[in-house]
Amino acid sequence: MPLMMPKTLLHCDLGDVVVLLDLLGGRYRLLCGAAADALRALLCEETSATQEKWLLERGFAVERQEVSWSFNPDVIPPTASIDECSTLPVSPLLTARAVIAQRLAAKALDRQPLRDVLVTLKDRAPRPEAGSAPSLTIAQAFRKSWRWVGQTDQCLSRSIALASMLFDRAEAARLVIGVRMPFAAHCWVQSGSLLLTEPLERIRPYTPILAV
Q: I need a labelling partner for 208 at 20 to 30 A (CA). Which of 131, 160, 186, 193 fits?
């Protein structure tokens, strides 16, 4: 029977290791050696019977099905950052909205699977041809909000909140999750080749595994 990876599993091949992101469980798995080879064979539709059995038993493969949504990680590598742009005046009201948006995003992540949060976000995104250039003022308001929200382990909720505010204004942006070895994961927002969340050096070690 034709097999595929479950649509709630995303992968990134980093050479010696294949990283899996489970959108339902909100966790990562690292495969190496024969396990990584079995997953690569699945992606190339060249699995042996032994590999198929192993993948099915562990939930890394399912019967082929229609996929109504995807999070294609094929994004333009950023070449510039908001840090290189002129600082714009940011109102206290906009900064407060950025703080509230991040707290709401954090609550949503606590209550729902990551898949549901990202599908909702994807549904709000403007069509690529319809989206306008992003508001640098909104992005800078999020940078200013760090004083109240903090920076440690906040990249996912911050990026979801920023993308949501941009999408509400029909402004073009992509939320990206990247991974690297030694293992770490990071989330950011970009518009085309412009990074909206931080300096370029912060994301250069990461390879995208997901983009909304």
A: 131
pLDDT tens per residue, range 97-125: 999 999 999 999 999 999 999 999 999 88
Tokens matching residue 146: 């760090």
CA geometry: angle 10, 13, 18, nearest 5 deg: 75
**CA–CA separation, 36 vs 16, rounded Å?**
8
For residues 178 and 207, the answer to whether their CB atoms sit within 8 Å is yes
| Amino acid type, 212 | V
State both tokens at 112: 């729902």
pTM above threshold 0.85: yes
